[in-house]
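Quick review question:
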């Protein structure tokens, strides 16, 4: 399984690590505060906490009628350490895979004489593509609006959550041979 295909599990692990860190730092933190700190919906916090309790990673203590304290267990600390290790491994795999595929596409864009390149998308993949682009003689721009797309020689798709939608938007602005996407994104052309 490639690093791209593992991205959903990676996101869940990242959320769980942040949740365990915040619970460990402040056992009396409310679920609403956890929701804000971790950056997920309030209902998801409850789901993640229940899952953590069922797995033995977190222990709950009732401290008043409507207040709870959460304690990360030794097993929870071990699991958090494992998830951090997996995250690091995933990040390196993602970087290597994306770098290799982006290199191939930048060489192709260079051979076609493109200079003014748009990167459509955001997040880790956009950052990796920008980093790889520094090895080439391109004028690189991060773009977010469709109206800007027609002004570029080529567009690189850089989004792992909904790459097909971005690709479809890009081909409305430029010909398909001028829109580049990593193989791992599984774009239907």
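Suggested answer, residue by residue:
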């Amino acid at each position: 399984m490639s690093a791209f295909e593992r991205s959903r599990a990676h996101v869940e692990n990242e959320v769980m690590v942040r949740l365990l860190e915040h619970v460990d730092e402040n056992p009396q933190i409310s679920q609403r505060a956890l929701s804000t700190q971790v950056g997920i919906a309030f209902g998801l916090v409850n789901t993640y906490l229940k899952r953590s309790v069922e797995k033995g990673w977190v222990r709950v203590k009732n401290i008043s009628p409507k207040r709870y304290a959460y304690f990360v267990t030794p097993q929870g600390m071990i699991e958090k350490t494992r998830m951090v290790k997996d995250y690091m491994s995933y990040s390196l795999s993602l970087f290597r895979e994306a770098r290799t595929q982006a290199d191939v596409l930048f060489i192709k864009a260079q051979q076609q004489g493109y200079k003014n390149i748009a990167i459509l998308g955001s997040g880790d993949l956009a950052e990796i593509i920008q980093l790889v682009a520094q090895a080439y003689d391109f004028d690189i721009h991060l773009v977010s609006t469709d109206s800007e797309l027609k002004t570029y020689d080529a567009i690189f798709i850089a989004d792992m959550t909904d790459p097909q939608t971005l690709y479809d938007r890009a081909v409305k602005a430029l010909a398909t041979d001028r829109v580049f996407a990593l193989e791992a994104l599984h774009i239907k052309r």
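Why it works: The radius of gyration is 21 Å. Residues 34 and 157 are 33 Å apart (CA to CA).
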